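Supplementary Data S3. Sequence and C-alpha cells for construct A.
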Amino acid sequence: MYWILLIVSLALNATGNLLAKYAMKDAPSNVGMLSLALYAITSWKVWLGIACFGIAFGGYALVLTKMDLSLAYPIMTTGGFLIIITASFFLFSEHISLLRVIGILLMIAGIWIISRT
C-alpha cells in the first residue's frame, strides 16, 4: 500500500512541476516581476500545480510513517527526475543529451542498489 502511495505522490509532484512549466511557458516576456507574479497567481495551471504539490506532500508524509527516509527520498527524487526528463522531451521538445541519458541510467542503477540493501 505504501509503495503505491509513494508512486502516486511521486507522480503528483512531477505533475506539479510540469504544470508550473506549462503555465509559465506562456507568460508574457519583457515584463516586470510584478506583472509576471500577477500572471502566475491568476493562472489556473499554477494553482493546479500547487494543489498537486500539496497532495504529493501529504501522501509522501504518510509514506514516511512506514518507510525509511533513506529509501523513500532517493526513490522520490530519482523517480521525479525520470518523469520530468521524459515528459519534458515529449511535452516541451526539450533536448536530452547523451550525458543526460548516462545520468538517467546511473540514477536507475543507484535506486536499484539502494533498494537492495
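Construct B, processed identically:
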Amino acid sequence: MNFNLISFFAENRPLLKYIAVINIIAFLAYGTDKDKAIKNRRRIRVSTLLTLAFIGGSVGALAGMYIFRHKTKKKCFTIGVPIALILQIALLFCLMNLPLQ
C-alpha cells in the first residue's frame, strides 16, 4: 500500500492543481456567501456550496465554514462537507494504490 502523497502528486501535477484551485474557489465562495448574508444580498445557492465541496473542495469548504463562521449550524453542511472529505480521502487512497499497467 502506498501512502506517499508527495510522490503521488509529483507524478500527477494536474490533479494537484485541480485540488488546489477547487479548494480556493470553495473557500472564497463560503466567504462571499457570508458577506452577502450580512449585507442582505442575493446568496449563493446551497446546492452550489455543497457541490463545490463534493467535487474536490471539501477542505476549502470546511475552512470557509469555520473561518467565516458560516453554515456551521446547518446539518446538511456539518454532516455533508465532512462526508465529502472522507469520500475524497478514500478516493485519493484508491487512486494512489491502483496497479500500474
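The chain has a mean pLDDT of 94. The CA atoms of residues 35 and 41 lie 9 Å apart.
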